[in-house]
Design a protein that fits this description.
This protein is an alpha+beta fold. 57% of the residues lie in helices and 18% in strands.
């Protein structure tokens, strides 16, 4: 078992002999001052790191927000080039329907026969956007078949009620495959 005796020196430090060797220790006031200084330095460093972290997160947020806005802009720009507020997926579906419609209904499988059918200015198809209280839906309509359909349909006044007129219109649309609904509510 070791024994030691402490002696207070003039500068507030302690000295003692421990196991026959001389040791000098700082006074507790000095230790407390150094401990308080170290704690303050650690707190300052932690505060600086929090600021740096917030700055990095802010820069990351700005970068991700900028990328998100860029993606939205590019999508909107591609929609603008189609001329209608339709998505790329809807545009593809419309093109497929037009192709099938030309081939199956009008017997116009190639571009040359389709151009002849459309005339000088084109205009073979009309796009209709119908706003409702719960959303907007769109219809692509063949102008050629619709004329035939309308001739067979007649006027709304010729029917007892709107329901009968609407049912006949749906039947003729199905018969001539002249309308394609591409934006559902």
């Amino acid at each position: 078992m070791s024994s030691w005796k402490a002696k207070i020196l003039k500068d507030g430090n302690y000295s003692s002999y421990l196991n026959g060797k001389f040791h000098e220790f700082q006074g507790y006031e000095k230790c407390l001052e150094e401990l308080a200084y170290t704690i303050q330095q650690t707190l300052n460093y932690a505060e600086q790191m929090e600021e740096k972290n917030a700055e990095l997160e802010d820069n990351h947020w700005k970068d991700s927000k900028l990328q998100e806005l860029k993606n939205k802009y590019e999508k909107m720009e591609s929609d603008y080039y189609r001329g209608f507020p339709i998505s790329e997926k809807q545009d593809k579906a419309i093109c497929e329907w037009k192709d099938q419609h030309y081939t199956n209904i009008h017997n116009a499988p190639d571009t040359r026969s389709r151009i002849t059918m459309g005339g000088v200015s084109g205009g073979s198809f009309s796009y209709k956007f119908v706003p409702t209280s719960i959303g907007t839906y769109g219809i692509c309509q063949c102008n050629s078949c619709c004329e035939r359909m309308l001739k067979e349909l007649g006027h709304q006044e010729d029917y007892k009620n709107f329901g009968e007129y609407y049912d006949k219109k749906k039947e003729l649309i199905k018969k001539y495959d002249c309308e394609f609904e591409f934006q559902e509510i």
